[in-house]
């Protein structure tokens, strides 16, 4: 698949033939919450142990969600001061993953600030950009470590209860998941796929609110769910740092349109 050139946002209602729909997902959260680990896990099925926390970049991967192709673009953000300057990607995003670490209470408080800021922006928009709240690092709930005596010591490191996350999500009408970027690829993949599904559902709700007039001398209009995700090209937001935001496109590796990706700069992958 050829690289996609970005220009100014434009309006279009028809999905071009052979072009998959697009879904722009922005991953938000405090530094150290595991945003990059989740992004790379989704794209590579691998876990990273080291990365540049100041690197903000956008990646793309062609996926098949519910038997429908979609070009998923993921922005791994690098906000230094929380949601203070989040305006740069609000208009670009189709959906938001807002991440905190269950072993860091401060990351949960920052996460709440993001939820409030994004909700304030998206309120009243049609369609709205769905928000998914993510509690990451559930593998750290009980952490086993060795001792000088050869014993295994189990430490309970959870600082944010699951009920806290569920309560926050219910308060703002968000979906809520707890995952581990370290352990489980399927759960991480489901986060991003569920974001695509929510974008489709919001588009369907928005269309249902609009009156549809069909001329008698024309064939009825077919509204497939694939056409609900517009492939309109949006202008990329300005990165938070001096580093240029780049978009790397995926190429299908098989006739089954399996997820593909190019190597992510700035990461050590194991």
TrEMBL record:
Similarity comment text for this entry: Belongs to the small GTPase superfamily. Ras family.
Keywords assigned: GTP-binding, Hydrolase, Nucleotide-binding
Catalytic activity: GTP + H2O = GDP + phosphate + H(+)
Top-level EC class: hydrolase
Organism lineage: Eukaryota, Metazoa, Chordata, Craniata, Vertebrata
Gene3D superfamilies for the chain: P-loop containing nucleotide triphosphate hydrolases (3.40.50.300)
Name under which the protein is recorded: small monomeric GTPase
Gene Ontology molecular function: G protein activity; GTP binding
EC id: 3.6.5.2
InterPro entries: P-loop_NTPase, Ras-related_GTPase, Small_GTP-bd, Small_GTPase
